[in-house]
């Protein structure tokens, strides 16, 4: 679809009831389309007035009564199609005034004016609640028949079906308008929630990415500074490592912003060993784990958990040793992969979970996993579990 076609497709719903109007002019055009179509029924009373069937006084009174009736109709429907409709008591008074005027004009001017009851029926179907419309529309038809007994019974019978049909048809249109407005509001709410969720995702990713990378850069910078006077060659290697880490952090941030960042557990294990060694922590890191059949979402969640855990060990724990284990277990809910990170440090100074653990918990819950953080007598243990595959269908066994 070309941009011009896309713009045109967005413009077309502008004439539909309940759709958003770009400006006041379009709003008035839409209202005229959906309200003015019923003005065709004015042809009979207008023809009756210009035909000279009445005296001058009666004709003037007829024009005045018709003008008031149409004004009430247009004011009622125009206002109630907007964002600030009349209150229910005023709506009832206006519809009642229209019915009284239609009755008086039909009884005094003749059967050509019975078509005014069509407008009363349209007003009832358009602005009244569904329950009220279901009895006011047949009531309008009954008044039409009673008035027709005094003027033209055959004409009243011919109009009865039309009055009922257009009244109930307008209830459907009114319901469609309300539904469209509600759907538009719901769509706006969903869009806002999606935007909030994307902001939370980006915040979690940036926290996990930059927290780990910046901690490693800080450690290596301090190490390079200590080595520089006596071991410039070793300091140069640390600076080269800093450059490599910063470049990788830049790549990771770009991937996180575009939404395609899915870290691998094997690469995070290698990065964890580098970070712990640079911090002077003795690391016990397993070889590349067996992840056959593990969903990509589960592996990604474990990789984020490992990154956050190692970042906390390096920045807050003051540990001298850290052990990482990755094992597969069979549970009642099916096979799981368990990541366990344990250190012998004193832990952070905070009394509650930080932003990292909170975001990590949310990330694991999205992958149908769980997080456990336990403070030991000497140290801290973080355990993350994610499904290793689909749960076994126990009920299907024979």
Throw out a few tags for this protein.
alpha+beta; rod-shaped; disordered C terminus; disordered N terminus; 5 strands; 398 residues; five-stranded mixed β-sheet
Radius of gyration over C-alpha positions, nearest whole angstrom: 38 Å
What's the helix-strand series? Answer: HHHHHHHHHHEHEEHEE
Strand order of the largest sheet: 1-2-3-5-4
* Cα end-to-end separation: 54 Å
Mean pLDDT: 79
Q: What is the overall number of helices?
A: 12
Shape category: rod-shaped
Output the structural class: alpha+beta
Oligomeric description of these chains: single chain
Q: Biggest sheet, in brief?
A: 5 strands, mixed
Unreliable segments of 5+ consecutive residues: 1-16, 391-398
Let me know the number of strands. 5
Percent of residues in beta strands? 5-15%
Q: What percentage of residues falls in helices of 4 or more residues?
A: 55-70%
Could you give a quick summary of the protein structure above?
This protein has 398 residues and is an alpha+beta fold.
Report on this structure:
This protein is α+β, with helices and mostly antiparallel strands. 65% of the residues lie in helices and 10% in strands. It contains twelve helices and five strands. Strand 4 and strand 5 (379-387) form a beta hairpin. Helix 10 packs parallel to helix 11. The longest helix has 75 residues, at 153-227. The two termini are 54 Å apart.
